[in-house]
Sequence to fold (156 residues):
Amino acid sequence: MPPPHAADDFATLLRYNQWANARVLDTLQSAGDVPERALELFSHLLRSQDVWYGRVQNTDHADLDFWTTDSLSACAERLDASTQRWDALLSSRSDALDQPISYTNSKGTAFETPLRDLLTHIVNHGTHHRAQIALLLREADISPPATDYIFFVREA
Fold:
């Protein structure tokens, strides 16, 4: 059984992930001419979270392409829906962080991974792509948002 605070820690990490994604979205929306690759990466990040949610819930997600580039308005809708789904999921499964989740990856390989590891992956995956987006924004003379975890903690 995980320590009693583990669910709270994961809830905080997911809130951080959502906060950081919202800051990136705000920057992209206000930037005007956004680098296409930045929008592609942001769409991928959000779509990946949807795919992982489907895997955790054992629902069909085969038709969701990881690399389709969404519009900014579609990204905003996807982020809002994703935030609500993940919050509800963690609330309902806070005592099941060590529960193995059976899923098949995009290459058709079956895996079984504890929920806590999938949640950690989702947050790390988001951090990775937000850093790539920040670099692309800087190259386009657009100031990227501060999305480091410590900034989230300071604002909380």
The chain is about 65% helix and 5% strand.
